[in-house]
């Protein structure tokens, strides 16, 4: 079976997923553009087990006129001749254009979604439009339980929804973290890491709630004895960096909270490997792949209950705990609890690895395969109304 998979821009996560899928399907990964303003990834290497096409390698997709974007997608579909096409999401111009072109060509599609009912404000009219767009797809590939439930709310039958979308290369983080632990002294010196620290990794944006994390961390330091307190390392960068640095100064945390900046994929395992545990405090998050990374590296995790991954990946008291991101006191108590649980960290970390083993690239591959087989058995609608709706949404 020939399956084409559309992504906005390939990063390391997309490559590992498509390599996994290429082991069980004939896969063509179609990348809309070679650049994105959201993620500053280095360019990833060609996949080992899938074909790769980039429509606009030297441009940002938002700079490509809609007519040119549509023509590029149409031409690529004609050249690739896929049996099934998987489309990431339903709101971007590229997703809408791919859905429209597939409907016009009679190609069944899979909607790949990590949206939940609670990750954004919902209005009745928008949900009705979304139901119509989502209904044009013949099956769905989603992150986990809350994403399945939301797609069902949008009218997709449960039998046509499959899990496994949100995966990372578990082996990359597991082996890299273990290598860092075996060479701890040199790695700690090379990366300038504290002797003991908890780790966070997030873009410096409002929903990541780094201000809330810092305030909870300050409260944690006040309630903990000096000899047991951990330092905090926060990976990432973004438009709120100056504001977050100012809060660090306000709370007098300059000597114990560290901002190393955005780190590329190959550097990440070292930071995970030498951390005691991981914390992710977002007020809203469709999934949270950094939690996958931390668990693959063998860390216990504290995860906001607003994260889409929390329900499936966090087993309370076994590999970590969930918390209300708006309750700094609750988070500070959990930071202290996790610090005191140092004797249990190895056990909890191993549990994290056992859980995340079921959510790697193999899960993406099997989910995509089942979704593709299901999509092939469903009829493809191509109405003038739906075509006009998609065209209107692309130009909004």
TrEMBL record:
Residues annotated as domain Glycosyl transferase family: 196-352
Entry-linked SUPFAM superfamilies: UDP-Glycosyltransferase/glycogen phosphorylase
Record Pfam families: Glycos_transf_1
GO molecular function per UniProt: glycosyltransferase activity
Protein origin, superkingdom: Bacteria
Database matches in PANTHER family: SULFOQUINOVOSYL TRANSFERASE SQD2
Protein name listed in UniProt: Glycosyltransferase involved in cell wall biosynthesis
């Amino acid at each position: 079976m020939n399956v084409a998979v559309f992504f906005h821009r390939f990063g390391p996560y997309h490559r590992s997923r498509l390599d996994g899928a290429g082991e069980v399907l004939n896969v063509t990964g179609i990348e809309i553009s070679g650049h994105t303003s959201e993620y500053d990834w280095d360019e990833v290497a060609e996949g080992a087990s899938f074909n790769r096409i980039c429509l606009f390698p030297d441009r940002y997709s938002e700079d490509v006129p809609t007519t040119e974007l549509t023509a590029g997608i149409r031409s690529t579909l004609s050249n690739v001749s896929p049996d099934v096409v998987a489309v990431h999401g339903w709101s971007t111009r590229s997703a809408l254009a791919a859905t429209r072109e597939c409907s016009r060509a009679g190609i069944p599609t899979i909607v790949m979604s990590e949206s939940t009912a609670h990750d954004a404000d919902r209005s009745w009219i928008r949900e009705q439009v979304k139901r119509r767009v989502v209904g044009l797809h013949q099956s769905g590939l989603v992150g986990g339980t809350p994403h399945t439930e939301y797609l069902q709310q949008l009218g997709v039958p449960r039998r046509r929804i499959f899990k496994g979308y949100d995966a990372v290369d578990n082996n990359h983080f597991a082996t890299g973290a273990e290598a860092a632990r075996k060479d701890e002294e040199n790695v700690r010196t090379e990366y300038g890491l504290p002797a003991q620290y908890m780790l966070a990794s997030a873009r410096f944006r409002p929903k990541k709630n780094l201000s809330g994390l810092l305030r909870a961390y300050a409260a944690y330091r006040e309630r903990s004895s000096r000899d047991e307190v951990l330092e905090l390392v926060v990976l990432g960068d973004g438009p709120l960096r100056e504001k977050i640095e100012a809060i660090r100064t306000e709370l007098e945390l300059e000597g114990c909270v560290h901002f190393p900046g955005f780190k590329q994929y190959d550097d990440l395992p070292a930071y995970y490997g030498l951390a005691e545990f991981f914390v992710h405090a977002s007020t809203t998050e469709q999934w949270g792949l950094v939690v996958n990374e931390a668990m693959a590296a063998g860390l216990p995790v504290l995860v906001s209950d607003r994260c889409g991954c929390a329900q499936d990946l966090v087993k309370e008291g076994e590999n970590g705990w969930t918390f209300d991101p708006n309750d700094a006191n609750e988070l500070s108590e959990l930071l202290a609890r996790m610090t005191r649980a140092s004797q249990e960290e190895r056990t909890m970390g191993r549990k994290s690895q056992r859980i995340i083993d079921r959510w790697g690239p193999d899960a993406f591959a099997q989910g995509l395969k089942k979704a593709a087989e299901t999509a092939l058995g469903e009829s493809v609608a191509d109405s003038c109304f739906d075509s006009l709706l998609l065209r209107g949404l692309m130009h909004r």
